[in-house]
Design goal:
Chain A is mainly α and 296 residues long. In chain A, 74% of the residues lie in helices and 3% in strands. Chain A has a two-stranded antiparallel ribbon with strand order 1-2. In chain A, strand 1 and strand 2 (52-55) form a beta hairpin. The chains are: A mainly alpha (296), B mainly alpha (310). Chains A and B meet through helix 1, helix 3, helix 4, helix 5 and helix 6 of A and helix 3, helix 4, helix 6, helix 7 and helix 8 of B.
């Protein structure tokens, strides 16, 4: 009897290894290997086009640290992350509370609100290049207020806030769905009991029930938001390419340009991407601890 | 003997709350709500929806105009006869511009191969992690989840160098292979397989089915919603992917649509042809919009499966 079971479980584990084999082959070649190889490359002057490869130690990291451009990019990314993540988290929560109704109309309108989440970042950026352009919609809206029309993406002051606006607009719906899923997982009896106990006003429901019960969702939304914001690339590359005068310069543009435009600087690019990785890890861990201590 | 379709019906019945949302807080609101408050909320929803639709409406409007300059006052009707003629005209111009059909074909090819393989690989691994017992299962699953912690930039540069070294720059395999392995798909599939009652599989085991037969004949057909959700997400992600093709496809022949759209932006020198840019945008958005309209339900479900029910 024991022998039969052994044969069965051996068959089972052999099947399991066969089923996970393709995944691990792919992860090995296109995730784990590049991640390790990236650290290796960051220690070299690595020019694969001219076959000039030699060891430089941590010099690539030093040149990233010394680069005022990288420092500017990191500061920009931190400003961007602070503004965008805080705004879009509030907005997503608000939209979820608004759309969490069983009206026919909420189903229909919700579907429209979710459109930017499926739209290609490049296509959306192009629509918004027009939106912020001199003949664009923003100037139409602002004209009655007496604000002179201008191309907002050409302005060093307004280019970055414009990109922030686009991303708050387009990412909020995605996180709204996460909050909606969270709201729908709150069992009805809890809110019924709360209503009997006199918790009726929307604010008190939010303060004492929705917000504390969705702390995990908020943590998730904030961390995903931060990781996404620090890696901002598509919208900046398409709309301003880091300009005007480096006003929208972010780390991914730095990394991309080093690798793509100057083959001799691929090692520097790899070093910068590792530093970005460290920044993301530190923020993620700090955030997790902070939210763990904050008990409502 | 129970047929797969009966099992499927049983599973739908038992797990309908996963398919439809389990009511939650929204249900009791509606009974107690006064009519003015309801109307106010509906007005707010419509306003938000309008804000979200306006950019897309303007995209369509621009694509139905021949003049590159804005008229004042603007003609806001995209459905008139001239609009339609302009639309067709713009379509011809965009379609015959550069290698537009090739770029469209490349996008379709890359996305469809990525979706098929990624979902299959994810379902196989997800099933193994959910249902089969083998040594190192937990550790290996954490390894898969750990890949979510590695930000893309770290992989990007080394992958690019690797592709240059093995000569896969400007190739379909170079565009496709790095996009297949997806921890999210594995996780989504595993979560769904865990919700299927194990009694069904136990019964199949007693009937003498082998583990892979159980996966192939019983469990995979029951997990159709999870297949749909991960297929849609993978498709959207791959269709819209910009950064990897930007590095990988350096000659025009291997471009995908996002690269083409970006190229359109600067294609005509200093003059900006908004109508053609927006037309190209529309052509790139059509497949995702169609899929979204058909499968909207699964989008929501996919996010809830991966997002909060961990």
């Amino acid at each position: 009897m024991a022998g039969v079971r052994d044969a069965g479980s051996r068959l089972e584990s052999r099947t399991a290894y066969l089923l996970i084999a393709p995944l691990f082959i792919l992860l090995g070649s296109f995730v784990f290997f590049p991640a390790a190889f990236s650290f290796y490359v960051s220690l070299f002057h690595y020019d694969p086009f001219n076959h000039s490869i030699y060891y430089v130690g941590f010099n690539n990291y030093l040149s990233v640290f010394d680069s005022p451009l990288f420092r500017l990019a990191v500061i920009n990314a931190l400003i961007y992350t602070t503004v965008v993540v805080s705004t879009q988290t509030f907005l997503a929560f608000g939209l979820a509370l608004l759309f969490n109704r069983r009206f026919l109309i909420s189903k229909v309108t919700r579907a429209f609100v979710f459109l930017p989440a499926i739209t290609s970042s490049v296509a959306l950026s192009i629509i918004f290049i027009w939106f912020f352009s001199k003949q664009g919609l923003l100037n139409y809206i602002l004209a009655p207020l007496g604000i002179a029309s201008q191309n907002w993406l050409f302005s060093t002051t307004y280019a970055f806030p414009s990109i922030m606006m686009l991303n708050i607009f387009s990412t909020s719906p995605y996180f709204m769905i996460m909050y909606l899923a969270g709201l729908q997982s709150i069992p009805s009896p809890i809110m019924e009991a709360a209503a009997i106990d006199g918790v009726i006003s929307p604010w008190s429901k939010f303060r004492y029930f929705y917000f504390p019960m969705l702390t995990f969702t908020t943590l998730f939304v904030v961390i995903l938001g931060i990781i996404g914001s620090i890696q901002l690339f598509d919208q900046v590359f398409v709309m301003t390419d880091g300009g005007p005068a480096y006003a929208t310069y972010v780390p991914m543009i730095y990394i991309f340009n080093r690798a793509y435009l100057y083959p001799g600087l691929i090692g520097v690019s790899a070093a910068a991407s590792f530093l970005l990785f460290v920044i993301i890890m530190v923020i993620t861990i700090a955030q997790r601890n902070f939210l763990k201590e904050m008990k409502w | 003997m129970v047929t797969p379709s009966e099992l499927f019906r049983y599973a739908i019945h038992k797990f309908r709350h996963l398919l439809r949302g389990n009511g939650g807080t929204e249900e009791l609101e509606i009974n107690r709500m006064s009519l003015p408050r309801k109307l106010l909320l509906e007005a707010a929803m419509i306003m938000v929806a309008v804000v979200y639709v306006v950019p897309f409406y303007w995209m369509v409007l621009k694509a139905t105009r021949i003049s590159i300059l804005a008229n004042f006052p603007p003609d806001l009707n995209p459905f008139s006869r001239t609009s339609f003629n302009n639309f067709i005209n713009n379509f011809h111009q965009v379609w015959s511009f550069g290698n537009f059909p090739t770029w469209y074909f490349n996008s379709i090819l890359v996305s469809s191969v990525v979706v098929t393989t990624s979902v299959m690989v994810g379902a196989m691994a997800g099933y193994a992690f959910a249902r089969l017992k083998f040594r190192g299962r937990n550790i290996l699953f954490y390894v898969v989840l750990g890949t979510l912690m590695i930000p893309f930039p770290v992989i990007l540069i080394a992958s690019y160098v690797f592709m240059v070294d093995i000569g896969w720059i400007n190739s379909y395999q170079g565009l496709i292979l790095p996009q297949i392995a997806s921890a999210v798909n594995v996780f989504l599939m595993r979560q769904y397989f865990l919700t299927i009652p194990s009694e069904i599989e136990d019964a199949a085991k007693i009937d003498g089915l082998r583990p892979w037969q159980i996966f192939y004949r019983i469990s995979a057909p029951l997990a159709k919603p999870a297949f749909a959700a991960s297929a849609i997400y993978t498709f959207i992600g791959s269709w819209n992917n910009f950064l990897w093709p930007l590095l990988e496809a350096q000659t025009v022949n291997y471009w995908t649509l996002p690269l083409a759209l970006n190229f359109f932006k600067g294609a005509n020198g200093t003059q900006i042809y908004w109508n053609q840019m927006m037309m190209a945008d529309i052509l790139a958005l059509i497949p995702t919009f169609i899929i979204y309209m058909i499968f909207e339900r699964y989008f929501i479900q996919g996010i809830s499966l991966t997002g909060t029910k961990g």
